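re: the backbone from monday

yeah here it is again, tokenized this time
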């Protein structure tokens, strides 16, 4: 005999769906408030970090060809640079390698020998000797150095697939116009000595640097940037801290290629001189050099 189950009839009462305002109301505040506060803290930190009005001076050193196992070489390229945020000012002053200055502890000599003399005594001390020499003679506090071998510069250019330079006049065997240079040709162009002097070499060196920077801003070349950064890392020796690189990059982006204030110590700022040993050097005319230093490092 089967038994029939009795089911109790359930009644359902319609529940009013909470409004959007109720669902996202006070109950969610404990979650949203910490997120908003955290976001504001991050934004504030990044803003202070990127826009804090601080000037950073860096000495760029380009080493002549040397043994890969050491850095015993002269600095045939010296560029005293400055970066200032938040206005995004980037200034560069090329210094002639034959400038006759006082080298601390060594007496008077060409400025490019400071690195060589220090490295011959103690490996790794060259950049600081060059930095200290610039500080003592130019009266500019230099915060960091960046040293690169010329061979490494060639590798960076090759990693970017070469570089396009635009010449307004014939220069170093090239006619006026646009030319695509490989790493070897770019290095030869910057260091060409036939029919030119150190003033022309400084101009060409800055021209290649700006052309390479312009290349990196081209979206079609962005795929090559990781390889170029790897080549740059392998070729560079620097004491610039990792936290400062974003500020440097932001300043360069803000200034743009045409916004970089690149200058050189010109012929009018020096006096050719022959030393007692018969060496052809350049005596600085500080009354003119100091005017340029004020424009770049005191604005």
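seq for it, each position gets an aa:
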């Amino acid at each position: 005999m089967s038994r029939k189950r009795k089911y109790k009839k359930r009644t359902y009462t319609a529940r009013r769906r909470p409004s959007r305002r109720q669902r996202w109301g006070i109950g969610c505040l404990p979650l949203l408030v910490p997120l908003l506060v955290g976001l504001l803290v991050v934004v504030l930190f990044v803003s202070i970090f990127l826009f804090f009005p601080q000037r950073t001076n860096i000495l760029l050193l380009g080493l002549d060809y040397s043994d890969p196992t050491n850095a015993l070489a002269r600095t045939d390229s010296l560029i005293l640079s400055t970066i200032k945020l938040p206005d995004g000012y980037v200034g560069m002053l090329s210094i002639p390698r034959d400038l006759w200055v006082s080298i601390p502890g060594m007496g008077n000599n060409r400025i490019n020998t400071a690195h060589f003399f220090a490295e011959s005594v103690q490996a790794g001390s060259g950049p600081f000797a060059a930095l200290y020499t610039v500080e003592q003679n130019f009266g500019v506090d230099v915060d960091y150095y960046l040293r690169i071998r010329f061979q490494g510069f060639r590798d960076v250019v090759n990693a970017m697939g070469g570089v396009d330079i635009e010449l307004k006049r014939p220069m170093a065997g090239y006619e006026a116009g646009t030319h695509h240079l490989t790493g070897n040709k770019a290095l030869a162009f910057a260091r060409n000595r036939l029919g030119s002097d150190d003033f022309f070499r400084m101009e060409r060196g800055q021209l290649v640097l700006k052309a390479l920077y312009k290349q990196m801003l081209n979206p079609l070349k962005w795929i090559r940037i990781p390889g170029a950064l790897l080549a740059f890392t392998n070729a560079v020796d620097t004491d610039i801290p990792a936290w400062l690189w974003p500020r440097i990059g932001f300043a360069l982006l803000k200034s743009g290629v045409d916004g970089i204030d690149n200058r050189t110590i010109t012929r009018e700022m020096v006096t050719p001189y022959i030393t007692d040993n018969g060496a052809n050097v350049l005596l600085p005319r500080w009354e003119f050099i100091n005017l340029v230093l004020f424009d770049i490092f005191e604005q």
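The chain has a mean pLDDT of 85. The CA atoms of residues 57 and 82 lie 4 Å apart.
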